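User: Need the bound-state model for 6-O-phosphono-alpha-D-fructofuranose:
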Amino acid sequence: MSVRQIVLDEFIIQKEKDFPYATGELSALLRDIGVAAKIVNREVNRAGLGDILGQHGSDNVQGEAQQKLDVLANNTFINSLKTSGMCAGIASEEDEDIICIDEDGHKSHYVVTMDPLDGSSNIDVNVSIGTIFSIYRRLSTKCPCTHEDFLQPGRQQVAAGYVIYGSSTMLVYTTGKGVNGFTLDPTIGEFYLSHPDIKIPAKGSIYSINQGSYTKFPKGVQAYLDYCLGIDGTNPKPYSLRYIGSMVADLHRNLIKGGIFIYPSTDDAPKGKLRLLYECNPMAFIVEQAGGKATDGKRNILDLKPEKLHERTPIFIGNTEMVEKAEALLAQYDQATV
Ligand code: P6P
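Assistant: Bound-state model below.
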């Protein structure tokens, strides 16, 4: 008789034993995120059937046109976290400032940063998109929470994860003791453990970057791309370019198959495009836990001290060997990537 696969909630509770002082608060918070992911999944999967496609008619704090699903996903996760009673505050890529939840004095110990729907420009063309989140222990002790609770180095994350709404919907997360992936069975609305203890392959032959911006990249990045393509003659087996334009999808593929994802600085965006709090820190925590590496071209992403809620950083993330090859070429061309 085949052993029934374990569901997300059971797994979270089982793993609580890894933390001797666990109060169950973090477990409850992770379960609440799982519930919100199921609600967003339902809307994403029927996006073409209702009036949920297209632009919302507003811009987010990044100045990016919000898709209707961006707003729905943001509100869904905020509402789920507000009612959980386990979250003291939220910083969302979609909102200019933090959202403090503890006005009623309930002393939650955790805050959440999130990109509620990353890659949303791909919604209308049915390309995989995702949700990305981090959980930190709050530093403040009084209610409400403060900005310092959210401006912690990524190394302080207690958990990080993403949901990929793709050919199947998966939730992948870490609490600092490895990375585990769960696949949603939509017929019963349960996430089942499908990818236990994910490790990024030691070698990779996929590179992911918006190569169309080649001429705007630092010379060291151009040199790395020339290496990937075999143009500089030193790479015996040129790599394959795979780029979806949805960070969660690109990173999930590279996590499973091996590869490097790069969003570097460019002439017109010296800090790159991706946000440190909402995209780079959670993904760096996950990839590092899976045996990979994530830097800004020089410094480990998780060691960066955020100064602003929406600050951006260049990112080189994936196999350690590939990231270090890119870093070596950046150093050789002595290009400051930040
Ligand atoms: P570009 C999506 O808008 C996003 O934030 C990431 O998911 C993705 O990796 C990146 O931007 C794509 O940016 O400039 O290549 O279109």
